[in-house]
Write a sequence for this structure.
């Protein structure tokens, strides 16, 4: 299906209805879950379809693309940097990203802190966990998370708000349920351990294939790309 044939408004309606069902099933309020429209590789015209339908949270995984779209799109958008961030590119987005989801090393956090000090802003971040222990994925090991969070909170101009993961690519979303539950448990553990001094309120987990299960297990941000904008064509 070409980008022109995608009905973003209809896809958003369906996604929204799925989110509401998952919230109801879990006894959660719809306002506890933020839908991030993952627009990577998609043209600004499609992003504007989503914008006009009320979407203000967009996710991109490449620095250059985020910056380009930031320039072209209205200014009341929250841009989420959801991809792996290279240290030498932090300076381009530190004052443009509303939330940086994929922080998985102290060195990256240090660079984010340094650039945020330079730009006189505060960088809001999530720590990424490699929840499925997959060699192909970024993120730090589950049992190293508390230690990393502990180190990051002493850095200036950087603020931790919670955890993020990309769960394994599975056919049956139920297979990821235990990973999402583990994510939430880690956030709870860190809070207990640190006397509630650390904000662990954000759990960014769940994508097109598994966001409903993620919401049932406590996700506060779901990142949906294909389900809104259609399949991606990486050749363009
Ligand atoms: C691409 C991407 C998504 C969206 O994936 P879909 O399966 O298309 O919903 C979510 N999170 C991250 C980190 C991504 O890179």
């Amino acid at each position: 299906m070409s980008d022109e044939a995608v009905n973003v408004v209809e896809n958003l309606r369906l996604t929204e209805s799925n989110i509401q069902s998952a919230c109801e099933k879990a006894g959660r309020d719809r306002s506890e879950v933020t839908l991030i429209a993952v627009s990577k590789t998609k043209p600004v015209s499609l992003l504007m379809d989503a914008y006009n339908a009320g979407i203000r949270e967009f996710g991109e995984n490449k620095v250059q693309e985020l910056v380009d779209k930031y320039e072209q799109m209205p200014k009341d958008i929250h841009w989420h940097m959801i991809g792996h961030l290279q240290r030498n590119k932090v300076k381009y987005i530190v004052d443009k990203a509303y939330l940086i989801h994929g922080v998985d090393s102290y060195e990256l956090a240090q660079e984010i802190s340094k650039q945020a000090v330079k730009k006189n802003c505060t960088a809001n971040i999530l720590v990424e966990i490699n929840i499925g222990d997959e060699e192909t994925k970024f993120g730090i090991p589950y049992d190293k998370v508390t230690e990393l969070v502990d180190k990051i909170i002493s850095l200036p101009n950087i603020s931790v708000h919670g955890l993020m993961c990309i769960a394994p690519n599975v056919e049956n979303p139920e297979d990821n349920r235990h990973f999402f539950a583990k994510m939430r448990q880690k956030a709870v553990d860190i809070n207990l351990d640190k006397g509630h001094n650390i904000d662990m309120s954000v759990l960014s987990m769940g994508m097109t294939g598994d966001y409903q299960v993620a919401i049932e297990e406590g996700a506060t941000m779901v990142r949906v790309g294909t389900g809104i904008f259609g399949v991606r064509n990486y050749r363009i």
Remarks:
- The first strand starts at residue 34 and ends at 38.
